[in-house]
Amino acid sequence: MKILVTGGAGFIGSNFIRLLLQQHPEHKIINLDLLTYAGNLENLKDLSSHPCYSFVRGDICDAGVVEDLQFDAIIHFAAESHVDRSILDSSPFLQTNIMGTKNLLEAARRRGCRMVHVSTDEVYGSITQGLFTEASPLSPNSPYAASKASSDLFARAYYETYGTEVVITRCSNNYGPYQFPEKLIPLMISHAMTGKALPVYGDGKNVRDWIHVHDHNRAVDLVFHKGRAGEVYNIGGRNEQQNIDIIRKILSVVAEIQGTDPERLNGLITYVKDRPGHDRRYAIDPVKLESELGWKAEVAFDEGIAATVRWYIENKDWWSRILSGEYMKYYETQYGQRLGK
Ligand code: NAD
Ligand code: TDX
Question: Which one of the listed residues 33, 59, 80, 122 is annotated catalytic?
Answer without folding.
Answer: 122
